[in-house]
Amino acid sequence: MTESTRGTAEPAPAGRKAPVPSPAAPAAPAFPGSPDAAPADVTPPDSLVIRTGAFSWLFPRRGSLVAVALGALILVLVALGTFASSTGMSLSETLSGLFGTGDPATVMLVQDFRLPRIAVGVLVGAALGIAGCLTQTLAGNRLATPDIIGVNEGATAAVVASVVGSSTGMIGEWWLGPVGAVLAAALVVLCAGGAGHRGHRVLVVGIGVSTVVGAVTDLVMSRQNDNTAGGVFLWTVGSLSGRDWSVGTPLLLILLVLLPFALAAGNRLQLLRFDDDTAAGLGVPVRRVRALALALAVVLSGVAAGIGGPIAFVALAAPVLADRLGGRARVPVLASGLVGGALIAGADALGRVIAPVEIPVGVVTSVLGGPFLLWVLFRSDRGTGRP
Known about the structure:
Helix content: 55-70%
Shape: globular
Radius of gyration: 30 Å
Strand order of the largest sheet: 1-2
Number of strands: 2
């Protein structure tokens, strides 16, 4: 072999074709679950995984930003509500009363009446928002609020019944609200034969029970004297007048105790968006989760109704708005509570400045809630995971 042919391939023997080198074959894809398979990223797009040793936690970035923004909004509305007055009190007088430098009457009006009332309104709105979120998710229907299942009517009937024969016109104790709500909800579930599939049967029966209980309440009020009927009527439309720390403190404690259970129930209810068999296959105790969610909603809305009266549309609007703000990846329990608190704070402040005479917060929410209800009924994004 000469120098010019060194390093070249030797010619193939006569009668045989030289082998053609084939390109490298692509590696076979690894099957899922095999050691060579790349780990799949199942993290929701709006979450951040935080790991500490053997534990991990999904941090909802969008939900956290929404919660912070809603908290700031509530603070702004509380400040506006503090200065909103139907008595003609000026800004300087309100500031002097707020810091305790004004005359005793102004200080008492701002610190002992106005601030506690605003705080109670925020807590009432939070309870209504959380209750509405649980019932809407439980039933899979935007119109499924505690009003529909007779909870608010039961709470109203219990409080109204406590003032039968009274001549003072004062409403009864706030704890009668949750008692009446629990009795009404128990009657609904009993008549419905259980919670039913996704709560639809409970909602249908609840409409009938709510109508009957409401008619009985109206009949009882019509038989009272003018003084009693006039005092109770203001509360039956939803009013925070006269509410202070004596009812705000128990409500705050109830919210602190029930909020963790509501968050846990919301996490489980998220899986109930599938059918029952799928949810049970994922380890969800379907009946217990539904019972827990319904019980929490009944207690929260009953307490809220016992303190502030049957304030309309907050339990409907708060979850819908929270779902729009926080996205549909989760059940927005916390955001619904914050939106509910903001709605009550804003409606209460608005009712004290739009007319010479104070308008009850329930009237304001009803006026604003009518167009919102039409928007919920006729909005175009049907079939997007949640009704």
